[in-house]
Design a protein that fits this description.
Elements: H1 4-25, E1 31-35, H2 41-50, E2 53-58, H3 61-65, E3 72-75
Parallel strand pairs: 1-2, 2-3
Helix pairs in contact: 1-2
Length: 97
């Protein structure tokens, strides 16, 4: 079991690395979507590092209930996003755990 400090360091490092990739791939991005964001802790940090307004989609209602209040996290599934098709301009996939 990781200590809280180790967990926070892991979140900060991961968010910083993803933020650098986003800035490289999509330098003019204004809005982002994190699918399966859990409580949005990493997404919140990415938003702070990039200035991008993020929305989170999470299938687990318990995670949504305890999610970050700094980003909008709603319950949903990747195969049925609650956005019109024309709203998603680019998709990138990052996976790490």
């Amino acid at each position: 079991m990781d200590s809280e400090n180790e967990n926070q360091l892991r979140i900060e490092t991961l968010a910083n690395n993803i933020a650098l990739k986003i800035k490289d791939i999509c330098p003019s991005a204004k809005v982002g979507l994190d699918i399966s964001c859990q409580r949005g802790q990493i997404t919140e940090k990415i938003s702070a590092y990039t200035g991008i307004k993020f929305f989170g989609i999470e299938p687990d209602s318990n995670e949504v209930a305890y999610s970050s209040k700094k980003i909008s996290v709603i319950q949903g599934y990747a195969n049925n996003l609650p956005f019109p098709d024309s709203n998603i301009l680019r998709s990138n996939c990052y996976f790490s755990h």
